[in-house]
C-alpha cells in the first residue's frame, strides 16, 4: 500500500509540474497600420502607386494634390547623399526605415497580400479584368487548410514567380531574402513549393522547362499513351529532342519510331509557359522612377518629378480641426492622421528608391560608360549592407522600379546578377557574359555556328571560366537556338 501511495504522489507531482504557470519572454513583431502602408507602397510600381493615391484622394477630403512646388531630390555619384531640406527630417526618415526593417514580412496575417484589380467606380460598365497569375494562385492558396505561417511562406514563393510561371530564383536565394528573424529554411520552402506546383495551371513553380513539362506529364493519368516514354525524354533527353536527334533518341530509349512519335506529339501538346495566359495583353507603360545623367564626369541619380505624386493637407479642413471648437470632428481627425501617414510613406518610398538607385549607379559606373560588357557582379546584400537596409527591402525597391539612362530604360533589378570566376581570381557578371555570348553568335559563320563548348572555350581564352551547361543556360535566356538549329536558319 505504501508503494502505491508513493507512486500516486509522484504522479500527482508530475501532473502539477506540467500544469503549473510559467513565465517566458519572447519577441513578437507587430505591424502597425502605418508600417503596413509603408511596406505596401514601397513594393508598388509607379503606375500602381498613382492608382492607389488617386483612390485615397477620392476618399479622404483632408488630402489634396500640391502641384505648386515640384520636388527635385538628387544624388551625386561621388557624395551619395540626398539633398534633403533639414537634418531633422533625415533623422526621422532613418528612424522610420529602421522601424520597417524590423517588420519586413508578417507571416501571421494576410494583410500584406494586395490585389491589383482595384474597382473603378467611374466606369461601372467595364468588364472585369482577367485575374493575374499571382491573384489566381493566391486565391487557390486561400482555400487550403494551412497555418498562417505556411500560407505566408507560400505567398512569398508566388511573389517570386515570373510571368511565365517559372521560379527563376533558387530556394536558397529566396530564403536569404526573407527576414532572418522568421527563420524560414529551404525545407519549409520546398514544402510550400510542392503545394504551389499542385495548383492550376499545372506546371507553375518549375525552375526549368524540363521540370515544367515533367509536372504536366505527372498530372496525367498513368494510362495515357506514351506518358512514361515522354517522362523519360523530358527528364533525360530534352536537348536531343530539341535538336531533332531522332536516331540518337531511338538508340538511347530502345523504342520504335511510332512510340517516339507518340511521345513527341504528347510533349508538344504541353504548355511550356503555363503563366502566359494570365499575362495582361494591354500595353504597359513604363514611367521611370529615377533619371541618371552624367554631369562633369559624374554620374548622378535624381527622382523623376513626373513619377512623384505631390500631396498636402487641405488647409481649410486643417484650420477647422486646429480651431477645436467644432463638434463632430472625430472622423476628420482620423482622416487627417491617415493623410499625414500617406504623405510620409510616399516621401519615404521615394527616398529609399533614390538611395538604392544611387548605390547601384556607384557600383555600376563602368556599365554607364561602356555598356553591358562592363557590368560588374552585384548582389542585393552588397547594396543592403552599404545602405543599412534589409535585403528584402532592396528586393522590393528593385522590382518594377525603372531607371532612365542614356543607354535606355532598365528595371533596377537588371543591374544585379551572379558572378563567374575568371583565371585571374576575379569575377565577371552574368550580364556581361550574356552580352559577350550574344556578340559571338552575331559574328559567327552561319555555315559553321559555334557550339556551346566552343563558346565556353572562346570565353576561356579571354580568362572567363564558364561551364558548357552555364553557356546553354545563358543562351536559352537570350532565346538563341542551339548550334544545330542555327545552322538550319
Short description:
This protein is of the alpha+beta class and 489 residues long. The chain has 22 helices and 9 strands.
Describe this protein's structure.
This protein is an alpha+beta fold and about 500 residues long. Among the domains are: about 135-205, Orthogonal Bundle (Arc Repressor Mutant, subunit A); about 210-275; about 290-415, no CATH class; about 420-485, Arc Repressor Mutant, subunit A (Orthogonal Bundle), CATH 1.10.10. Helices cover about 50% and strands about 5% of the residues. The chain has 22 helices and 9 strands. It has helices spanning about 1-20, 35-45, 45-60, 85-100, 135-140, 150-160, 170-175, 185-195, 210-220, 225-235, 240, 245-255, 255-270, 315-325, 330-365, 365-370, 380-385, 390-400, 430-445, 450-460, 470-475, 485, and strands at about 65, 75, 290-295, 300-305, 310-315, 400-405, 410, 420, 425-430. The strands form 3 sheets. The protein has a 5-stranded mixed sheet with strand order 2-4-3-6-7, with helices on one face. Strands 1-5 form a two-stranded antiparallel sheet. Helix 2 packs across helix 15, helix 5 packs antiparallel against helix 6 (about 150-160) and helix 20 crosses helix 21 (about 470-475).
